[in-house]
Design goal:
The structure holds 2 protein chains of 2 kinds.
Chain A (H helix, E strand, L loop, with lengths): L2 H9 L12 H16 L2 H4 L4 H20 L1 H7 L2 E4 L2 E5 L16 E3 L1 H6 L18 E5 L6 E6 L14 E7 L6 E5 L4 E7 L2 E7 L2 E4 L3 E3 L2 E6 L2 E7 L3 H9 L3
Parallel strand pairs in A: 2-7
Antiparallel strand pairs in A: 1-2, 3-4, 4-5, 5-6, 6-13, 7-10, 8-9, 9-12, 10-11, 12-13
Helix pairs in contact in A: 4-5
Chain B lengths: L9 H9 L3 H22 L3 H18 L9 H19 L23 H5 L2 H13 L2 H12 L4 H8 L3 H29 L1
Helix pairs in contact in B: 1-2, 2-3, 2-4, 3-4, 4-8, 6-9, 7-8, 7-9, 8-9
Classes of the chains: A alpha+beta, B mainly alpha.
Chain lengths: 247, 194
C-alpha cells in the first residue's frame, strides 16, 4: 500500500457523513402497500372498473345496513368491518377510557419536514378546503406509523371533544386491524364513497384503540395503501366534503 | 438450558424476500441502510437528495428481486441500484458536483474511538486529503471513495460503478496518481503562501 493509500484508509473513520436516516420504515411501508395492492381483487385493481366496483360495494353495504336496522338480523350483520388498517367493531359495552386521554399522535414537526421524511407510501396531502394545518405530527411506531394534520376550530368547523376543529390521520402500511374503532349502541356506521375510494362514516362517540380515547364523527377510507381517518364535529355531508378535498 | 434461535442468515432473508416476505426485506434494508445511504451520498448532490434516492432505489430493488440471481451476493447488487438511482437523479436535476465530503471536526465522548491509523492523521492533513479528493473528476473520486471511504472490495466497487474488475484496478491506479499530484500541488501552494 502506498503512502496515499494508507492515508486514505486512515481517513475512513474521520469522514463526517450525514447521519443515516431511517430508510427501513418508509421502505417497509411502501412495499407492504404494493404487496397489498397486488393481492387486491382484480375488480378493485383495474382503474376503469374501480369507481363502479366501489359504488356497487357502497350500495351493497347500504342495503346491509338497512337490514341490520331490524333487531333480529342486527346482531350479526354489522359485527365488524375492515377499512384499510382500521377495524370497525361493534361491542356490547364501550371500554372505559379516561376523559382527558391524549391524542398521542407522535412527534410534532413541520409539514415540509413531514413531507421530506414521511412514513407514508404516498406524498403527504392536505385538506385543501382548510388550507395549511395548524400542527403536524409524524408517528414512527410500527403499529401506528403515519402522519397527522391538526386543524384548530374556526367558523364552520366546530370544536371536537379534544378541542380540535379537524384531525386527519393517515396510517401507513400494515394489514387490517392495526387500529380498532369500537362502537357502542350510540354510534352508527354508514358506507360512503370518497372520490372513488370505499369508506365509512362513523357517527357518534366511539373508542379508538390505540391510544384508547373517545372519538367523535369520523370519515374513514383507504386509497393506495394509506388509511385516512378524518375526525371532526361535522355532520356526514360536510365531513364528506372535507374528506373529498384531501389531495 | 435456554437455547435461543440464531438470527436468520442474509441468504435466508433474501430467499424469503424473493418469495414476497416484506418483513424479511425490511430486515435486509435495516442491515444495509448505512452503507446504502453513504453510497447515495457519493453520487447525490445533497444529503436530502441522497435520502430520497436511497429510499426510491430500495423500493426499486424490491420490485427487481424476482430477477436477482439466487445465491449471488446481495449487497453489491443492492448498492449498484442505489448508486444508479442517485447518479441519474443528480444528472436529471442538472447538477454536476456530488456532495462535498467533510472531515469530522470534534469527536464527542459518545463516539466510537478512532482507529489507531485515523488517530495518526492530523486535522489539517484530513482536510487536505478531502480537498484533493473533491478536486478530482467524478470517475476518479467515485473509485477512490468506494475503495477507501466505503471500504468496498474490488468486486463490489465494480458493481457499483457498473464496470469490470480489471477496469476498477486500472481506474484506481490512475485516480491515485492524480490524487498524489493534487496533494503535491496543494502542498507547494501552501509553502509559497507562507
Amino acid at each position: 500500500m502506498t503512502d496515499v493509500e494508507q492515508r486514505l484508509a486512515a481517513l475512513r473513520d474521520d469522514v463526517a457523513w450525514p447521519p443515516t436516516p431511517d430508510l427501513a420504515t418508509p421502505v417497509g411501508a411502501r412495499i407492504a402497500a404494493e404487496s397489498r395492492r397486488r393481492r387486491a381483487p382484480l375488480l378493485l385493481r383495474a382503474p376503469a372498473l374501480r369507481p363502479i366496483a366501489v359504488a356497487a360495494l357502497v350500495a351493497l353495504l347500504a342495503a346491509a345496513a338497512l337490514l341490520a336496522a331490524s333487531p333480529g338480523v342486527r346482531a350479526r350483520v354489522a359485527d365488524w368491518l375492515g377499512v384499510g388498517a382500521v377495524r370497525v367493531q361493534r361491542v356490547e359495552r364501550l371500554p372505559a377510557v379516561a376523559p382527558g386521554a391524549r391524542l398521542d399522535l407522535g412527534r410534532r414537526t413541520t409539514l415540509a419536514a413531514a413531507r421530506r421524511a414521511s412514513p407514508l407510501p404516498v406524498a403527504v396531502p392536505a385538506i385543501r378546503a382548510l388550507g395549511a394545518p395548524d400542527a403536524v405530527y409524524v408517528d414512527r411506531r410500527p403499529r401506528t406509523a403515519g402522519v397527522s394534520l391538526l386543524y384548530g376550530p374556526r367558523r364552520g368547523l366546530p370544536r371536537t371533544r379534544q378541542g380540535a376543529g379537524a384531525l386527519l390521520t393517515m396510517l401507513a402500511g400494515g394489514d387490517v386491524a392495526l387500529v380498532k374503532k369500537l362502537l357502542g349502541s350510540g354510534a352508527g356506521v354508514e358506507p360512503v364513497d370518497v372520490s372513488g375510494a370505499f369508506g365509512v362514516f362513523v357517527a357518534g362517540d366511539h373508542v379508538l384503540e390505540p391510544p384508547g380515547r373517545l372519538a367523535g364523527n369520523t370519515v374513514l377510507w383507504e386509497r393506495d395503501g394509506v388509511t385516512y381517518r378524518l375526525e371532526s364535529a361535522l355532520g356526514r355531508d360536510a365531513a364528506l366534503r372535507l374528506a373529498r378535498s384531501v389531495r | 438450558m435456554v437455547v435461543s434461535r440464531p438470527p436468520p442468515s442474509e441468504a435466508a432473508l433474501v430467499e424469503r424476500a424473493r418469495r414476497g416476505d416484506t418483513a424479511a426485506y425490511e430486515a435486509l434494508v435495516r442491515a444495509h441502510q448505512d452503507i446504502a445511504f453513504r453510497t447515495a451520498c457519493l453520487f447525490a448532490g445533497s444529503a436530502a437528495d441522497a435520502e430520497e434516492a436511497a429510499q426510491e432505489a430500495l423500493v426499486k430493488a424490491w420490485r427487481a428481486l424476482p430477477r436477482f440471481r439466487a445465491g449471488a451476493p446481495f449487497r453489491p447488487w443492492l448498492l449498484a441500484i442505489v448508486a444508479n438511482e442517485a447518479r441519474n437523479r443528480r444528472r436529471a436535476a442538472g447538477r454536476r458536483a456530488g456532495l462535498a465530503l467533510r472531515a469530522a471536526t470534534d469527536r464527542t465522548s459518545g463516539d466510537a474511538a478512532p482507529s489507531p491509523e485515523a488517530a495518526l492523521l492530523a486535522g489539517g492533513e484530513r482536510d487536505a486529503l478531502l480537498a484533493a479528493l473533491t478536486a478530482l473528476d467524478e470517475r476518479d473520486r467515485a473509485v477512490i471513495a468506494c475503495r477507501y471511504l466505503l471500504d468496498l472490495g474490488e468486486r463490489e466497487t465494480a458493481e457499483v460503478l457498473g464496470c469490470r474488475r480489471g477496469t476498477v484496478k486500472s481506474r484506481l491506479s490512475r485516480a491515485l496518481a492524480r490524487m498524489r499530484a493534487e496533494l503535491e500541488r496543494g502542498a507547494s501552494e501552501e509553502a509559497l503562501a507562507r
